[in-house]
Write a structure and sequence with these properties.
Length: 140
């Protein structure tokens, strides 16, 4: 029988995070750096849009980041990413409009699905190709 319990006393005291000033503020909290989250969002769906990048103009913080996206239909949006999700806050790169009260989306997939039929098609085709590849792998 394999032992899976971990005795906390056996863990090393120094995990390397203490010395790194970037992490000192995060110790003991669940705060995610939204800029890192935003980069992950961009990397996830970049293949299915014309252009997408984290804003270098608008202020990113621990709790908010802004992502510029241009759909394959050539529509431009500025997206806000927070713990609540993603939403459109402007209709051009690096533009925010406080009067906009667009709904939050839990995922970038559902947001882009609502904005761009071409995204939906490209993403769906990529999914089908992946499934076909998995099917071939399992048959060999």
């Amino acid at each position: 029988r394999m032992e899976t319990d971990c005795n906390p006393m056996e863990l090393p005291n120094n995990t390397g995070f203490e010395e790194d000033s970037d992490y000192r503020d995060f110790e003991g909290t669940d705060v995610k750096d939204m800029r890192l989250e935003a980069e992950a969002v961009v990397n996830d769906v970049l293949f299915a849009v014309s252009n997408m990048f984290v804003s270098k103009t608008l202020r990113c913080a621990e709790d908010v980041a802004y992502i510029n996206v241009e759909t394959r239909e050539r529509n431009r949006y500025c997206l806000e990413l927070t713990e609540a999700g993603l939403r459109v806050v402007g209709y051009d790169f690096d533009q925010t409009d406080d009067r906009l009260h667009t709904p939050y989306h839990e995922t970038v997939y559902s947001l882009l699905d609502s904005l761009s039929p071409a995204y939906r098609e490209v993403f769906g085709n990529a999914l089908l190709q992946r499934l076909e590849a998995l099917k071939k792998e399992s048959q060999s």
